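Lecture 7 notes. Example A: sequence first, then its structure tokens.
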Amino acid sequence: MQAFLEENDEQASTNIVNEIIEHLKQLKNSFEQYFPADREVLLKDHEWVLNPFSVCMKPSSLSSSDYERLIDLTSDLTLKSSFNSNSYAEFWLSLKDKNYEGLSEKAKTLFLPFAITYLCESGFSSYAATKTKYRNRLNVEPDLRLQLSKIKPDIAQLCQNKQAHTSH
């Protein structure tokens, strides 16, 4: 901004500068909420989510009963093989049906911000690709619904069920 003002021999008003400073402070606070400065402490406290089978001490984020369930979980060899063969999310979601629902819920809340960010970014990317300058008046809602859905259409079934128009 300073370079632009100097290039055009302009001065920024005090109100605008104060508003920009306030906006940047709020943005910084928002980032600190999502990405805390003591990230190492936060990661160490939630290391049990990334590898529950390597936990040696009780994490401060877990209650005593949850820690006992974590100990039970680490002694189950079938769960260990499931952990090694699945992604983090699949593993923790599979525990929801078993006796580890509390741990599963806590792990899910740690993964949630990343999924939401990914969905927002993929949604915006699809929107930007659909809403080009040649299609600027297009209502993109139906197209986005198809682009962002995980359900893949069965084209053969749709064509088979399509009723042909009869002759007049």
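Example B, a different protein, same format:
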Amino acid sequence: MNTSTASQAGQSFKTKKVPAEKNASKTTSTNLSANANNTVEKTINSAKAENKQSSTLPTNTVSKRNKAIDGLRALAIIGIVCFHMRPSLLMGGFLGVTLFLVLAGYFCTRSVLRYLNADENAKNAKNIEDNNKNTQGIRHYWEYLLKRVKRIWPPTLGIIAITAPIMWLFSPSLLPKLQADALSGSGFFSNIMYVARKLSYFEQSGLPSPIKHLWYLGLLMQAFVIWPIILAALIKFVRSKLIRMYITAGLAILSSILTFTFAYLFNNYTTPARVYYSLDTRASEFLMGAMLAMYGAWFAKHSFHAWLIHALHLLMGKKNISVSLASSVKLDSNADSSVDNSALTKKSDKAYANNEKVFAEDGIPADLREGLQIDLSDNSVAPDIQELPNNAFNKPKTVFYNPLHAWQRSCIGLLATIVLCCCFVYAEGTSSVFVFGGYTITAAACTLILWSCTQTDNICSRIFAWAPLAYIGRRSFAIYLVHFPVLELFNPANRTTAVSTGEQVLQALVIVVLAECLYQLFEKPIQDQQLFKLIRSVSLTLCCIIIVSLIILPVNWQ
């Protein structure tokens, strides 16, 4: 009787307890899912708010800029302006374009990865179908391109429209050249036109066009159109982040090989127009910055040399060594940071330790131990079981690598800066060195400087964050647009008198003043100033009218 009542009581207890446990598990699971959905929705809303804020406040706001990177822009534009001076003050100043390409690849890749992460978060939160996801990805791609066009196109139209009347008044012989390049310059394909004309960048034949320097904007916009598609395909079809970087590095190497091939086919190991102006031969410089952005987004919490050793182990097929990537220095707000995997690592290590405790000798139940064919008392193995090596079930060896110290990062950045400055002074554009990977090596030095400037605790970033350099860097795009027409106006190709140092200083001051006007008119962020918005809209409309008239109407400069 006692046993029957006890069993009935136990059954009644089980029947009462199980539904309660089920209800509790259901409520907890629903609460967890609701909390997860709420957190994901909050992150999406915050990302949307951040994107909206970034759209209303362009990237050149002072609060969100890295002054050291602005200093890098200043170094690039100073080299370019000094190269175009007559006589040239820096023979290798044209390599400032390489530094600009590295910066463009870095920020372009960061923006694309941010868009792709937003799409992935939206899919995980709302269970979006693949068709809707593809539609959303295409929409984000066009939004990305529209932002780049809004950033680059108005100042470009402005400089073409302003140059036309000035050349008509002071240097009418350059007006036909301006008319010939107005359409390609405003449409971002002047580099393709120069390749078709076989017009070398370093060999002047006749009067140069006052907007010849717009070839770089054509190259840049073409990279902005093509690279996001390639990067999205890599992320979709390649799961390993490290292999994505390998593929990107392979594309950079392929670009260097194309540079050598076309130089050999066209102009006997020099730098012809096909090599200098084309996207496929200059892509290695852009991809260097792209790889740095990938490293910042996917491996930023890891030590640089630990990541490199891990990559070498993967290439050599050594899978029995797991490299512990130690936490590196904290990047500033401008640098991307990857997901913090420290919590996941701690959880996995804890789970591994728990598993070891469960399968230890003292934790195995007696009935299960009797069913085993291994006598744990004397470590003897049954005859029908093959003897395994002693380290068969050992945990893989973990090798720890510490991050680079601040003085090491400073030395790397300063050494790369010295190499780049030496190239500015001694390099020649017609040298065969650049055909044999010279542009790629220079881009690697620029990438190391950029990597050093994304971290705030080293000497290199402090040097480039100097206020005058940061000021010039914020106006670097306007200076680039203004400097070449001004120098062509003051120093025409048919000038026979020498240019004094005082004249060069005066020309530099004129460039800075005109660049400041162009920056204030077309580039400076506008928040709530309706009058200034109206002035900018009217100015842009007038520029379009002048450019269309210049393209359509015949020009008689005589």
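Note on Example B: The two ends are 124 Å apart (CA to CA). Confidence is low (pLDDT under 50) at residues 5-29, 46-63, 319-385, 395-401.
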